[in-house]
């Protein structure tokens, strides 16, 4: 079986020439096919990662924009509001 490196210097799958494929036996052609399939799966996963990173960045930007619009309430603010509500109820009883 002839030596063939199907991965180029950029780390991407490069299809062998017809002559190179013809020089391979069935096992070699099957291995090249498996490498191609794995390369396609890796490319799809890399594209999904990029898409997810963009979606996360957009969501983070939306959250940051909402934080500027929506007033912030701290735990102390909530506790004070609960205390005032409790005093109002007790005064009404």
Task: Tag the structure with descriptive keywords.
mainly alpha; 93 residues; 0% strand; 3 helices; 73% helix
What portion of the residues fall into strands of 2 or more residues?
under 5%
What structural class results from the helix and strand content?
Answer: mainly alpha
Low-pLDDT stretches: none
Computed Rg: 31 Å
Number of helices: 3
Q: Write the H/E string, N to C.
A: HHH
Shape: rod-shaped
Q: State the distance separating the first and last CA atoms.
A: 94 Å
| Count of all domains | 1
Strand tally, please?
0
What can be said about the biggest beta sheet?
none
Proportion in helices: over 70%
Kindly state the mean pLDDT as a whole number? 87
Structural summary, described in words:
It is a single chain. This protein is mostly helical and 93 residues long. The protein has one domain. The protein is built from three helices and no strands.
Give me the secondary-structure topology:
Elements: H1 18-23, H2 26-69, H3 75-92
Summarize the structure.
This protein is mostly helical and 93 residues long. It has helices spanning 18-23, 26-69, 75-92. The chain contains three helices and no strands.
């Amino acid at each position: 079986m002839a030596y063939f490196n199907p991965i180029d210097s950029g780390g991407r799958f490069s299809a062998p020439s017809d002559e190179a494929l013809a020089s391979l036996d069935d096992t070699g052609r099957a291995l090249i096919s498996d490498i191609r399939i794995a390369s396609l799966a890796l490319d799809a996963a890399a594209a999904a990662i990029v898409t997810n990173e963009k979606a996360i960045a957009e969501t983070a930007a939306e959250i940051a924009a909402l934080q500027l619009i929506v007033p912030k309430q701290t735990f102390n603010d909530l506790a004070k509001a609960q205390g005032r509500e409790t005093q109002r109820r007790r005064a009404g009883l």
